[in-house]
Amino acid sequence: MPRTARALLPLAVFFLLSGCGTAPTPKTASNVATELAPSPNLYVGRILAIDLERRFAFVALTPSAPPIALQPDMELLARNDELRVTANLRASRQLRGRTLGVQIIAGLPAVGDEVTFPTLP
Prior knowledge:
By secondary structure, the protein is α+β, with helices and mostly antiparallel strands. It has helices at residues 2-20, 29-34; strands spanning 41-51, 56-61, 75-79, 85-96, 99-107, 114-118.
């Protein structure tokens, strides 16, 4: 048993010292730029249905939808799952429970796209 302990001691020291030799990588401009930052857009809901002839859509609102985004004539954005803007929307006066009617100003949204309220100009 003592021979085994003496034989394993250099191996243990080797692994201990090799683990201490690595230094953490310093933050560079490229590392900081790739870190995720919170979105300045507020989440309103998801598109339920679309009427392309009338350029109108219905949005299922989240419980935390900002009240200012539900006001008539407020500009909203529709985004797909890749966070690409698919349409510019305008809130209408059609608000029933947790469903909001929106006019499609530009673009072509799809059912299931998320609707956000841009807070930055």
